[in-house]
Design a protein that fits this description.
Length: 284
């Protein structure tokens, strides 16, 4: 189990779950709430790092004071910086998947001097994925209408039953897996990451319509380890390729038998990716 810590900062109190030993590495997602079960993505780094799994503002027992800061990526970076400083860390690494990967890019742009490196995947450096028919979030995708029904039930319908929510979550997950057999691995292990609707709404309606950090990526010179599933149905693979090409010091790893969750779908290959990443960092 991960160990809970409540961190007092100059921007409020934040709930953090800690596991592992080694150099510090922060993990979070833009609109997910974690608990002592940890997280399947964060687990990938525990063998080599002391991992801080952060509940951002409005998640879990972290502050929900929006009078001093919003749920934006920019304010999330400022909150993470306050946590890092409160922990007494001169630097840490940051790893994020999906919108956590997008946050990694923003973090590297805003505060690269605080980061030893970033790991980011399943991402897009702009809102272009929403216009790409290969993404289930695009209105022209064959699965989009059904996905919107599922999301409405999961996020906006408190009257939905546990059985309905479980079935909807499974259907959404299956849209994002290369092979249906991976679903059992996805749900059979301790994991947390409940969607926090108010943060999802902020991202969807306030930030995503104008989100585009591509012009700033060339100025990021810290090591960036970008990865993508070749068949990613949420943020198509081409956007991982684009981000890696735009960053000033990036390597790209491709998972050829993965959709959106290569750390589950190709777990052994992802472990090798982490090992290779560490070796590359040592040799730089």
């Amino acid at each position: 189990m991960w160990q809970q810590q409540i961190i007092e900062t100059n921007r409020g109190m934040f709930e953090v779950f800690v596991a592992g030993e080694g150099e510090p590495l922060c993990v979070t997602h833009l609109y997910s709430e974690f608990n002592e079960k940890g997280n399947l993505f964060a687990n990938q780094f525990v063998a080599t790092h002391r991992v801080y799994l952060v509940n951002l503002r409005g998640c879990g027992q972290s502050t929900d004071d929006t009078a001093i800061a919003s749920y934006s990526m920019a304010d999330s970076v400022r909150d993470l910086e306050a946590i890092r400083e409160a922990l007494g860390l001169a630097k840490w690494a940051f790893a994020g998947h999906s919108t956590g990967g997008m946050l990694a890019l923003v973090y590297a742009i805003q505060a690269s001097s605080s980061l030893s490196f970033i790991v980011a995947g399943g991402l897009c450096a702009s809102n272009d994925y929403m216009k790409n028919p290969a993404s289930i979030y695009c209105k022209d995708n064959l699965h989009n209408a059904r996905l919107r029904e599922i999301l409405a039930m999961l996020v906006a319908n408190p009257a939905s039953t546990a059985e309905e929510r479980q079935a909807g979550s499974k259907e959404w997950s299956l849209m994002s897996l290369y092979e249906a057999s991976s679903y059992d691995k996805l749900i059979s292990r301790p994991n947390s990451g409940k969607t926090v609707s108010k943060r999802l709404d902020y991202f969807s309606y306030e930030e995503l319509p104008t989100f585009d950090v591509r012009p700033q990526l060339g100025d990021v010179t810290i090591p960036a380890f970008i990865y993508g599933g070749k068949y990613d149905a949420q943020c198509p693979y081409e956007y991982a390729v684009e981000a890696a090409a735009l960053l000033g010091n990036a390597t790209l790893t491709t998972f050829s038998r993965s959709n959106h969750f290569p750390f589950v779908e190709e777990e052994q290959a992802f472990e090798q990716f982490v090992e290779k990443m560490i070796q590359q960092k040592v040799n730089r």
